[in-house]
Amino acid sequence: QIRYSIPEELTRGAFVGNIAKDLGTDVAKLAAANLQVLSDSDSQYFSVNVNTGIIMVSERIDREQLCGQNPRCFLHLKLAIENPVEFYRIEVEILDINDNPPEFPSDEVSLRIYELASLGARFPIQPAQDPDVGTNTLQTYHLSANDNFNLNVKARTDGGKFPELVLERALDRELRAFHHLVLTAEDGGSPPQSSKTHITIQVLDANDNHPVFDRPSYGARLVENSPLGTLVVKLNATDVDEGPNGDIRYSLSSHNSAALRQIFAIDEQTGEIRVQGNLDFEEATVYEIEVEAKDMGSPTMEEHCSVVVEITDVNDNAPEVILTSFSSSLSEDAPPGTVVAVIHVRDRDSGDQGKVQCHVPPDLPFQLRKDYEHQYSLLTSTRLDREHVAYYNVTVSASDLGSPPLSRHTILPIALADVNDNAPQFEQASYEVLVAENNPVGSVLVTVSAADPDSEQNSRLSYSILRAGGTDPGLDPTRYLSIHPTSGQVSAKLPFDYEQTTYLQFHVEVSDGGSPALRNRTLVHVFIVDQNDNAPRVHFPRAGEDSATQFRISPSTAPPALITKVVAIDADSGRNAWLSYNLVEATDPGLFSVALRSGEIRITRALQETDPSAHELLVVVRDAGDPPLSTAVTLVVLVEEKGPEALQGSEARATDGGGLPTITLYLIVSLVLISTV
């Protein structure tokens, strides 16, 4: 067996050995012996020059491919010689050369290390691989300079070397989130070869930092009554942690009151505080909001800050009018200066917007007096008269000094209480009444009416009848009349008789129900109107009911001699007493005539012998009433030779009518004398 040693990676044709020399054989003999080289492997790495006996490399030889990590690597050849047949075993040791640098599995290595990892923690790194052997293989590692890690190389029993990173100094992700290291693997060749891998260490966050606001406190200024959704302030908190540990949520602290939580709201994502309720300067001028920012780590960490919100007043409150004292009823005789109400005014705004001025309309009998700040008294300014104005609506106007000013109007209803200061007044100073005689009992003759501008009891009227001065003392009006005490209707107690009473006057007194009562009077004139209730009454000639009055005349009586005169009287008056005389029946209608108005009976022609000696005349006396009333009288005229003249007849009638009243007798005598003349 022949052994040769050659380094790997020789070029083709490289000299391996001189087989002729090493076998001690002539080269020519080897050529004649038909020398052949046989290999145990599939590849023919070597060839022999039979002319020279030199073994040469015929193919590239890679020791690492042939033998891997074996410390020694051999290729076996066989030489065959004929004549005689001989076999020789040749062993070629392939020597390693440093033709391979150490190789890491990857050029980049990523590690994720928790920032709170304890000191001394070890983090293995995938080792580099070097196919070379011996001193040419991987010998050592080198780590780039850094502040936190050291390199520890762990050797295995098989000679492998494994690198480890050892934490020597605590990590702080917030100071340095990534560490970049370079690990170098170096073999023992000459010259040595090396390779590098870049190690990127990501420091995993631990929730070791609480959120931090960019300011310890915030300030904002808002106008009251700001609309809903108005941005108050945008908070900004940061957390140097990452991931959930640095994810911040904002909220209002539980220290805030429930009322404040209804006014303000915060967006948990953006930290924007906005208005969600009514801002009222009069309720609060400053709001201090406690806000907390929490991260989402486990356990959570939080930070607090305060937001001071100042509210600016606007003139949004109208003045308030408060009645401290008020009497809705006032006596009408209250003197000027009487206090009706005490008014307190206030305005919840501030500054000039909270200053209030009050006034009442100038056309009312009231005025305001300022007692002191925020208090006024409402006084009467003039005399009051309930009968002129019974009710007042006094508008108290309160205005502030804002721009624009706000005002409030309060209406005070004031009713004037009545005082009995007005006497009743009749609608007429006097009344004239025409009453037909024979009126029915109980009939209303007249209604007197009085009015009293006072009210209630002071205006309740009562009527009564009084005797009028200057009237007949014996004529008592209450005998004939009565009056309803409340309606003023004057009624007849008895029927009137014109022939007895033609005129009546009396007073009607009215009194109110006040205390003391006030009175007034009116004069009532009652005129009795005549009715045609009396028929004419014949006073001459007088005759019985069934007898006629006789008159005698001489046959020589010449016309128009007055025979007699019918005298009648009607107790009525006016047309009812206007009498007319008519000859209704006569023995000879053409012999006598009756004067229509005077009742004189005259002869109208001379008597003749053929005329009857007795003439009966029926005279009807009728008044002009409606309907007319009448009375009939029958006269008998006797024609006698010895009869008296007409005048004598008249005297005879006068004697016959001696029962006439004196005035009637004088009247008849005068008429007869005038007729005779």
TrEMBL record:
InterPro entries registered for this protein in UniProt: Cadherin-like_dom, Cadherin-like_sf, Cadherin_CS, Cadherin_N, Protocadherin/Cadherin-CA
A GO term from the CC aspect: plasma membrane
Chief subcellular location: membrane
CDD domains: Cadherin_repeat (cd11304)
Membrane topology: Single-pass type I membrane protein
Database matches in Gene3D superfamilies: Cadherins (2.60.40.60)
Pfam families found in the cross-reference section: Cadherin, Cadherin_2
Coiled-coil region list: none
One Gene Ontology MF term: calcium ion binding
Domain of life: Eukaryota
Record has Repeat as a keyword: yes
Keyword annotations: Calcium, Cell adhesion, Cell membrane, Glycoprotein, Membrane, Repeat, Signal, Transmembrane, Transmembrane helix
Subcellular localization, as worded in the UniProt entry: Cell membrane
Protein name as it appears in the record: Protocadherin gamma-C3
